[in-house]
Amino acid sequence: MNFSTKSEYGLRALTILARQYGKGPYSLADIAKTEEVSLPYLERLFAKLRSADIVESTRGAQGGYQLSRSPELINIYEVVRTLDGYLVPAVCVFETGPVIGQCKRVQNCRLRGVWRKVQDRLEKTLREITLMDLVEKKPVAKKKILPKAKR
Fold it and tell me: What's the CATH class of domain 5-135?
């Protein structure tokens, strides 16, 4: 499971807007130049972010984009979900839908519980980190990693 460039570039661009929060619209062309990302690609990403009410746009010479609310109120999960859809370690994590029918073992699978736990922790972690955390470069809390089991 990998995060796509949509999420990576989107989060990098939104971090710029988070730093500029309260100062008015910021040019997408300037973001593209600063982050070395194609402007048309950012325009597609920002169309999705605007539809999800994460950013708002202003037209005109002084126009551009700004966050629709405070960076403390926008979490990483919301952005990733908007740009990438669901991030799942295995398709069987979904409760319903066409993907369930793809695996004959879904009802008796010993791994499905593991994948669901991974999914829950991933979502929890992404919901805990906000755009303001990225601006302030707050480290994500590290928990003690257990040693590898001996073979």
Answer: mainly alpha
